[in-house]
Structures are given as C-alpha cells and as structure tokens.
C-alpha cells in the first residue's frame, strides 16, 4: 500500500453493497477518498446497489468485483485497483455474515463456512494488498460480541473472535513496515442493515427440541436490542459507523486509536480497556438464560 501519489487517498472496502459496508463507502467518499466498493455480483445480484453507489459517487466511487472467499478474486481485484489508481491507502475488511440460533443446531460444515467468511477472508484480502509496497492502514470491522458474550450467536461470536485474534497478530507483524491497523467495533444494528434479515439458521433444527421454551426467546432479542438503543437515546443510523471511521482516519498516522467502538452499552469499550469479557446479565435475563441450578 502506498501513501504517495495523487491528492485523493484511495480506499478499498469489502462487502460494500449494503449496510455497514455501504455506510463506510459513503463516509470515506465524503471525506475525500476515492473508494473502490467491492462486492460479489456487480453485474448480477448486486447490480442495483453497485450502480447506485457509482451514481452517487461523483466519480469518486468505483465498483469492483471481488469475492472474499476466493484468493484469486482478491488478487485480481487488488491488481485492477492498483493499476487504475497507482496507490492504495486504506483497506477495510468488512465483508461478513451472521448465523443466528442455538449453536447445537448448526453443523460443522456451517461453522467452517462462517469461519471462512468472517476470519479466513481477512487473510485472503491481506495477502493480496500486502504485496503492494509502502504505507497504509488496514481496518477490520469486528463485533462487540468478541468482548460481550451473547446467546444464540455462538458461531458468529467464535468466527469474529478468530478474525480478531488473526488481525491482532498480523497487526504486530506488519507494523514495522509502516502499515497501521485499526479495529472498528460496532454493536448490533437491527435497522439499516440486512444482517439479521439475512442471518442463516441451523441445518439441524431437531437438535433444539430439548431446549424447550428457550428457543422461543430468539426472535424477541433483536427487538429488545433496538428498544435498549432507543431508551439510551442512541441513534440507530448505521451511517454513524462509517462517520466514526472517517473521523479516526483523519487523525495523523501514529495518533489514531487502535479501536473505535460503536455499541449501545459501551460494554465492548469497557471490557477492552479492562482486558476481559463482559457478562451482560440484563440481556441474558431477557433471553431467558438462567443458572443451571434453576433449570431452563
């Protein structure tokens, strides 16, 4: 990656079609970046989203085909970008997926699938961009669930924790080469994204029968998180994620925060500072989680 060249810095954002990815593209565009918005199906399933991003971009947003599950696709996209722009200053690893349900209902194959998307994909993208020389910043879109355990999203939490551990190690390895790492840690955004709507469920639902009424608590959790947001007076606008990233990147190199948290209870930030994981008891009660001695 290079910090030299034209006046406008260049950013690559993965998973840009909707939600947080799109918000990041728009915020970086407004901050003066030339943004390459990568996604699968630029001419297919995401054609409408890709076209609208380009139309709003005032020649500062470029669509680019990129499948983070394919190393060849990642390498081809980065080569195309570097050939066109001659530089790459910021890479945002955002593409991800959610699996929602009792952990036991998911098959090992499903677990490997979410690990591939939420953790291994970061390695693929990094291997492609780190071949370019110079300075720059790699951004990882993580999750507060890495710090705050929650029921019903165990596979998602494990995959994001795996990605976080990989990214932390790589951050130490690439720092001597002048490449910074920044961790963007949003909480749940029930509105403004398709994260919950597109969440996959377990392929083995019969495994959940023995959990009884506990499984009925799952649909209510999303609404409860949204209610907490409103009670706390927080905006649910997903654009705030992109705006806070843009603000962090405005700071001079060496003065940027390592982590930027955007979560409803600030639990992730507090636990990161204390070096431990939180136990959100109130949310667990809402989910119907009790101590083993009292039964389910």
The end-to-end distance, rounded to whole angstroms, is 52 Å
On the 0 to 100 scale, the average pLDDT is 81
Instruction: For the largest sheet, list the strands in their spatial order.
Output: 3-2-1-4-5-6-7
CATH class: Alpha Beta
Uncertain segments are: 228-235, 292-296
- CATH architectural category: 3-Layer(aba) Sandwich
Helix content: 40-55%
Oligomer class: single chain
Sketch the topology as an H/E string, one letter per element: EHEHEHEHEHEHHEHH
Instruction: Give the total of beta strands.
Output: 7
Shape: globular
Q: Tell me the major beta sheet.
A: 7 strands, parallel
CATH topology: Rossmann fold
**Secondary structure tally, helices:** 9
Q: What number of structural domains do the residues give?
A: 1
CATH-wise, what's the superfamily?
NAD(P)-binding Rossmann-like Domain
Structure explained in plain terms:
The protein is of the alpha/beta class and 296 residues long. The protein has a single domain, classed as NAD(P)-binding Rossmann-like Domain (Rossmann fold, 3-Layer(aba) Sandwich), CATH 3.40.50. The protein has nine helices and seven strands, in the order E-H-E-H-E-H-E-H-E-H-E-H-H-E-H-H. Helix 2 links the parallel strand 2 and strand 3. The longest helix is centred in the middle third of the chain and has 22 residues, at 108-129. Residues 228-235 and 292-296 have low confidence and may be disordered.
Summarize the structure.
By secondary structure, the protein is α/β, with parallel strands linked by helices. The chain has helices at 19-30, 47-56, 71-85, 108-129, 154-174, 218-231, 239-250, 267-274, 281-287, and strands at residues 10-13, 34-39, 61-65, 90-93, 136-141, 179-186, 259-262. α1 crosses α7 and α3 packs parallel to α4.
